[in-house]
Amino acid sequence: DAGITQSPRYKITETGRQVTLMCHQTWSHSYMFWYRQDLGHGLRLIYYSAAADITDKGEVPDGYVVSRSKTENFPLTLESATRSQTSVYFCASSESVGVGTEAFFGQGTRLTVV
Amino acid sequence: AQKITQTQPGMFVQEKEAVTLDCTYDTSDPSYGLFWYKQPSSGEMIFLIYQGSYDQQNATEGRYSLNFQKARKSANLVISASQLGDSAMYFCAMRVVGVLTGGGNKLTFGTGTQLKVEL
User: Fold this and answer.
1) How far is Cα A108 from Cα B52, in angstroms, rounded to an integer?
2) pLDDT of A28-47, one tens digit each?
3) B104 interfaces chain A, CB cutoff of 8 Å
């Protein structure tokens, strides 16, 4: 299917475990983003990537790792999950540079850390 | 650094009335884009409208219009003739290429406004 897809949609994990959230887009967009959504905070940028093998930190990167070996994939790994990382995670993508470039979002992954 | 501020956590509006959702922004970069997204209870993010910093006219898309006041650094969303289906969370966002400020083409969001349309 064309578009941007996230998996899994729902995940429950235990404190201290490593968990990876997947993001796949079919448009060959250069830019990809990971956000977390928490009540009262809106969407906060965790990491973003301008192209394959180019990533940079966003506003709240601590505790997260990303990689981008292929243009279409941008996985987000929680190295040792904590309860404070319970959140809804959104992946997004957009074409290359331009302030008017709309970002397209995945359906979100609801992660619960117990 | 870029910042988006939405000061209305929640808003109520009567069906068929117009409603304005506030958004102010802060950036030192002269080139930026402003976006509004809608998030219904189902959770997906839906793009509504875009305004560029150099655009002379206010953007409009159907019942949505963006009241862009550059000097005040505000980009309020106006929804005319509200419908029950407009009940959702609305996010204002800004994208800065950041040639001068190192913005890196990031898309920065506000905290959102929860809109409830009532009969």
Assistant:
1) 27
2) 898 999 999 998 889 999 99
3) yes
